[in-house]
Amino acid sequence: MSVRKLKPITPGQRFRVVNSFDTITTDKPERSLIAPKKNSGGRNSQGKMTMRYTGGGHKQKYRIIDFKRAKDGVPATVKTIEYDPNRSAFISLLFYADGAKTYIIAQNGLQVGQTVVSGADSAPEIGNALPLSKIPLGTVISCIELRPGQGAVIARSAGTFAQLMARDGKYATIKMPSGETRLILLTCTATIGAVSNSDHQLIVSGKAGRSRWLGRRPRTRPVAMNPVDHPMGGGEGRSSGGHPRSRKGIPAKGYRTRSKVNPSNKYIVERRKK
């Protein structure tokens, strides 16, 4: 994967950096695995705006992703690597030996024609899904379950990965993408390898209109508001809004909002760095 910097022949292309999509093999999704995706424009069932700065954007279809990888022992062939407008990572279309078709999150290095398989008896190779009890220590993993059978919820976005550090009793110690060290049950499933499209963080849109295509409307800076609209509003001229905080008054930049009595605190070995 690589990125391309365009020639500055227009103002919108002057700073634009795009993904070369050299690993993408098709631009047509599997019709049996797409679903309609309704756009609310930030309005609720009464038509009132409950989410600001959203609306518009290009119409999209949702790709149905198999996050559970529950077809144990059935080999599948990677048919395509595709772009998904609903996520930063690329996705792969799998054709199983029993005739089923599913989409999965593509791992870095996954190739068309490669065979992947899930289950406890699988080899720890790129794209295979195994329980944490069967993965060698030190392995780079992604698409991790937090509860057995729940489906992948951790390390699913472009370029992210976690690392299996240790095993003790019925828990595995995982170094999360955020830097947090956490205990997860050994019966939870994870996929070998880092998530694809690691160059996603290098992309530069180049112009404001590209955000509108993604359904993002212009955002008003809090310091430009009045005191009635935001805690950081008001003041004469360009006087700053004081300490950065949210519309509800919760401080930003380091203020910890996690509850001290959260039941899952006992599973966190080390908090992420501030």
Automatic annotation (TrEMBL):
One of the primary rRNA binding proteins. Required for association of the 30S and 50S subunits to form the 70S ribosome, for tRNA binding and peptide bond formation. It has been suggested to have peptidyltransferase activity; this is somewhat controversial. Makes several contacts with the 16S rRNA in the 70S ribosome. Belongs to the universal ribosomal protein uL2 family. Residues 124-251 form the Large ribosomal subunit protein uL2 C-terminal domain. GO terms for cellular component: large ribosomal subunit. This is Large ribosomal subunit protein uL2. Residues 244-259 have a biased composition (Basic residues). One of its GO terms (molecular function) is transferase activity. It comes from Flavobacterium cerinum. Part of the 50S ribosomal subunit. Forms a bridge to the 30S subunit in the 70S ribosome. The keyword Signal does not apply. Residues 33-53, 221-274 are annotated as: Disordered. GO terms for biological process: cytoplasmic translation. Pfam families: Ribosomal_L2_C, Ribosomal_L2_N. Residues 42-118 form the Large ribosomal subunit protein uL2 RNA-binding domain. Keywords: Ribonucleoprotein, Ribosomal protein, RNA-binding, rRNA-binding. The keyword Transferase does not apply.
